[in-house]
Amino acid sequence: MPERSLKMCVSLEETKVRQTTHWDMDYLPRDEVQALYARGTSRPAEALSSDPPPKTLSPRQLGIICIVIGIGLLIVAVAAARFLSG
Q1: pTM of the prediction?
Q2: Which of 2, 17, 32, 77 could crosslink 28 through cysteines, CB 3.0-4.6 Å?
Q3: Which domain holds residue 17?
């Protein structure tokens, strides 16, 4: 069985390169770090949008809405039970 070489290999993945922080560069060989900086940005510049961001509900607001709906359904159920019982 052939012996494995003990040479360490570093593979570059596009997503890894985009998300690499500065301290990760300490573990890469110098040639690869220089190639990363020489390559520049691969992402196109994002255009500024004049539209406001969509409004989303916070978990607190969603919880309050669910509680109010639950209380409303309870009131309807009690009213229906009183009406049907006579």
Answers
A1: 0.39
A2: 32
A3: 10-43
